[in-house]
């Protein structure tokens, strides 16, 4: 950007991106003198933007509270990144309309050149069906519930909820993790002291909530924990599959999203896996390309029998 107007927008963008700047830092980023920075800050104040300053060598500046919010200042890559993110969010059940509205507002406030780029990206792209790994519809995301859970995490406020219709739970929440188009709340169960992931679409908050707590850092990586525990307890259908191959062979063939592998002996292992339907689990097992046996759950055994007869009939066997 060139000229005073462009420089003012660049200055606003810098003030938005960080809480505090020295005059020398702003001058260096804008390639101007300290005097020009002071003059530009005065112009912003004249336009109604609350820029606070601390006197001293070079001075320090920050956007103050109250007054007008500065305009959205994005460079080309940032604008495209937000547009792509909003298009992707539009595929998440429950927030499709919100994502479309947000994308429309983004285009409305962007300069003409960037608005044309974002509009071109929107018009030139299309999305196929997102749920290609399951024959079960994605659960709808409740933005209000996600907001409430995030606030509890931020404020170290305990939560009380019913989970899958079972007994009430009280949990100290620490993180929300999005994985496989599902949302999981990770927290420590107050009664047992155990860490657990809870599918957000399976919980119903109770009022009043739990007690405030001092957070305990979890002794593991939260995302890896969710992947591992969901494979064990977080699916609608679970199975333990005896695979007639060494554990390292199975591990080399599966995505971590499929499940976990427990070594049994040099020639076999147990794959702990699951999914939101019997059909999904059966497909994942078949994609291993290895001999296996399954003794439960009964519905999965029955479905594998149906597939066996269907494939045999397809080949005339």
UniProtKB/TrEMBL annotation:
Protein name per UniProt: DNA-binding transcriptional regulator
Keywords: DNA-binding, Transcription, Transcription regulation
Coiled-coil ranges from the UniProt annotation: none
Alphabetized GO MF terms: DNA binding; DNA-binding transcription factor activity
Domain (HTH deoR-type): residue spans on this chain: 4-62
């Amino acid at each position: 950007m060139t000229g005073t107007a462009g420089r003012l927008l660049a200055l606003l963008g810098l003030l938005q991106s960080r809480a505090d700047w020295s005059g020398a830092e702003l001058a260096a980023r804008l390639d101007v003198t300290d005097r020009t920075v002071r003059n530009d800050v005065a112009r912003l104040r004249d336009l109604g933007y609350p820029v606070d300053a601390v006197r001293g060598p070079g001075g320090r500046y920050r956007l103050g509270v109250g007054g007008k919010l500065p305009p959205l200042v994005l460079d080309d890559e940032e604008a495209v990144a937000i547009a792509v993110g909003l298009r992707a969010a539009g595929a998440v059940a429950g927030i499709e309309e919100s994502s479309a509205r947000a994308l429309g507002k983004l285009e409305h406030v962007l300069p003409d050149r960037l608005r044309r780029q974002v509009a071109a990206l929107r018009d030139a792209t299309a999305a196929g069906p997102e749920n290609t790994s399951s024959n079960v519809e994605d659960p709808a995301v409740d933005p209000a519930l996600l907001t409430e859970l995030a606030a509890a995490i931020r404020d170290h406020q305990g939560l009380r909820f019913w989970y899958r219709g079972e007994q009430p739970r009280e949990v100290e929440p620490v993180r929300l993790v999005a994985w496989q188009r599902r949302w999981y709340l990770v927290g420590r169960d107050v009664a047992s002291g155990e860490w657990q992931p809870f599918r957000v679409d399976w919980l119903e908050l109770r009022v009043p909530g739990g007690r405030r707590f001092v957070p305990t850092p979890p002794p593991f990586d939260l995302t890896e924990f969710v992947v591992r525990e969901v494979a064990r307890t977080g699916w609608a259908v679970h199975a333990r599959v005896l695979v007639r191959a060494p554990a390292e062979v199975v591990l080399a063939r599966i995505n971590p999203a499929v499940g976990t592998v427990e070594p049994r002996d040099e020639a076999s292992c147990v794959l702990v896996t699951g999914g939101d339907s019997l059909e999904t689990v059966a497909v994942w097992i078949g994609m291993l390309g290895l001999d296996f046996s399954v003794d439960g759950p009964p519905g999965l055994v029955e479905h594998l029998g149906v597939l066996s007869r269907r494939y045999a009939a397809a080949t005339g066997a």
